[in-house]
Structure formats: C-alpha cells, structure tokens
C-alpha cells in the first residue's frame, strides 16, 4: 500500500504543479543535493552523504535491483555493495535533463519531485573509463524540520546503449547529420 500511495503521489504531482525555472532557489537547492548525493556520495563512496541526505522513512525502487525498503538497507547496500565492487562506478547527470516540480499543501511548499536522466560509467584498474548504462530517475524530496531529505527514489528505464551524441562520439549529432545532408544535396 505504501508503494501505491507513493506512486500515486508521483503521478498526481506531475500534473498539478508546474516545473520550476532552473534559476529558482528550489531548483538550485535540489540540484545541489543531487550533486552531494551522486558527485560526492556515489562517485567517491562518501557514505556520510547518504546518511545526511536520506530520510529515515526512505524507500528505493530500481527496475533491475528491486525494492530497498529502508534507509539502513540502502546505506548498507552502498557501503557493502557499490563501494566494494571490483571497479569504481561513476554517475553523471545528463546536462539539461533535470526538472523540479514543487509540492504544496494549502500554498505551502512541503516537498518537490526531481526528475532527470543519468549515465553510469566504470573505471577498472589499467583500463580507460567506459559507459555502462543510462537511466531515468525520480526523487521525492520532503522538507523535514526545514531541511530537504530524500524520501523516495526511483531509478528506471536502464539502457546499456547510450544514444546521446554528447557521450558517444561514434554517434553523429543532429547538427552533423544536417551538415552531411547539405554537403550531399
């Protein structure tokens, strides 16, 4: 039932609130939290970031790894799983993909949905870093005692082929395709 209510909240909030401008204080604050969570926490295995940013009432839904039902299990999974892999994983936010939707009750901000696309890479000893997957994510942030805490996380639509030209020089960009058409016609 808890999952159903969370999923319903995500769907309803998506239709009830307008996306905030990337220059807004809310967008900048949650982008900063995303950076702490991933650029510092995930990418460097700084477990303190997860301990500080994640709510005690946290749940995580992953389309390949399943459900993680608590903060303790999530932090343990990062500490004892991700941080002990034979390679170093790295997450990169896809530029321009981040969106934020405020959640209000009676006009008062209590939370926000943050959505975007992220890429994952691996670095093995004596090898160049390589792409592993690209996925979508949705985070439900809630204000707890004036502090933003991550309450729900969803990571889904994982693909092992990155179709964006920025990350794969072998894939011609739209601009390159237009130039090629012009040269051949």
Keywords:
34% helix; Nuclear Transport Factor 2, Chain: A; seven-stranded mixed sheet
List the helices and strands and how they pair.
Elements: H1 2-16, H2 25-44, H3 47-53, E1 54-62, E2 66-68, H4 71-80, E3 88-93, E4 99-105, E5 108-123, E6 130-144, E7 147-159, H5 174-184
Parallel strand pairs: 1-7
Antiparallel strand pairs: 1-2, 3-5, 4-5, 5-6, 6-7
Helix pairs in contact: 2-3
Task: Describe the protein.
It is a single chain. The protein has helices at 2-16, 25-44, 47-53, 71-80, 174-184, and strands at residues 54-62, 66-68, 88-93, 99-105, 108-123, 130-144, 147-159. With 185 residues, it is an alpha+beta fold. Strands 1, 2, 3, 4, 5, 6 and 7 form a seven-stranded mixed β-sheet that branches. Helix 2 packs antiparallel against helix 3 (47-53). The longest helix is centred in the N-terminal third of the chain and has 20 residues, at 25-44. The radius of gyration is 18 Å and the shape is globular.
